[in-house]
Amino acid sequence: MRILLLTVAFLAAFVTPAEAGAVHVVTVTPQGYQPLELQIKVGDRVKWVFKGPGVQNVRKGLDPARPCKATGQPNSGPREPGQSYTHRFTRSGRVTVFDEVTGCREELIGTIHVD
Q: What 3-state DSSP class applies to 77?
């Protein structure tokens, strides 16, 4: 028991604010992402919750000029209603995301500003 407590105390001492970042929730429906835009900090996570009906996903777009050209992470893969996907943002910048499954529609193109 004493070893367990020491291990927990040791690990807790090395958790930085970036590792313990906030979680921001985005709801995904066929009508769009809610919210469509987020302002977060490096180390924060975004959790997309899929409400359906039908399969949807979250995918990183190449850039704001080409938001529906898929590249890199986040990439949730296909998700059923009731499922979720969480991604930690480790670099600052502007990240465009879109729903690759249902198509590139304005209401399903989101922006995450990472400070």
A: coil
Task: Report the distance separating Cα 104 and Cα 25, nearest Å.
Answer: 21
**pLDDT tens by residue, 27-52:** 999 999 999 999 999 999 999 999 98
For 86-113, b/e burial (b = at least 16 CB within 10 A) is ebebeeeeebbbbbbbeeeeeebbbbbe
CATH topology of domain 19-114: Immunoglobulin-like (2.60.40)
Q: What is the pLDDT of residue 18?
A: 44
Calpha distance 17→34 (Å, rounded): 26
Phi, psi at 54, each rounded to 5°: 90, 170
